[in-house]
Please model this.
Amino acid sequence: MSVGGSRGRFQQRSAGAWWGVQRTKLQFERGLDSQYPRARGTTRRAFYEYQVTVPVACYDPRRLRIEVYGRDEPTLARVFADGPVESKHRFSGGSLCMWEPEDGEESRWQPRDGLVRLIDMAILHLFREAWWRETGCWPGPEAPHREKKEARPT
Model:
């Protein structure tokens, strides 16, 4: 007998948000255990939070804190990192500015890409920040920067 009626065993709806729906959470986290086995997730009031320590090539590892928002599915993520915060590629609230909304889909993260791709993009961003702090040059594509306001969850 399936739980949740016609939705199937893993489609059971919760009274909460996307992270309470096992199938949705499993799809979003696919590959996480093999790529980042020490990653941990915690339910917060308005979002689901992941914490993971990641390697940054040629630099010290960094601890990421990722806030993932959404009701029925993940819709928005904000990524924060420990270590030096001096960067022209951070929002005023401290989250990483890894892409511009106008960037093409291949250049920006989409929720359907899953958590592992978001973490991988953050690692690349942290490498670029460290390189920029050391050399003054940003290695890779770079959009013009203006006063950045933190992206707000809807």
The chain has three helices and four strands. Residues 18-135 form a domain with the Ubiquitin Conjugating Enzyme fold (CATH 3.10.110).
